[in-house]
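Sat 14:20. Reprocessing the chain from the morning session after the first attempt stalled halfway. Input below, unchanged.
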Amino acid sequence: MTSKVKAKKLVEKYRYRSTYEDMEEDIRMSESKAIQCALICVNAILSEVNSTTLRYEYWEEVKQEINKL
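Finished this time. Tokens:
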């Protein structure tokens, strides 16, 4: 999955979510708050990944793509 697609999917996961499994209503978060949540997630991943690996580069690219949204 490209970093651009991953960035969009992460933000969408935070933006559209249900509060309870048995509820049909979706809770919508503002896009700016969803972006902040996605960035927190990516920063946590980056803090756990060795900065010399390809995975680190990938997540840095994801972070850049989230910042572009």
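The radius of gyration is 13 Å.
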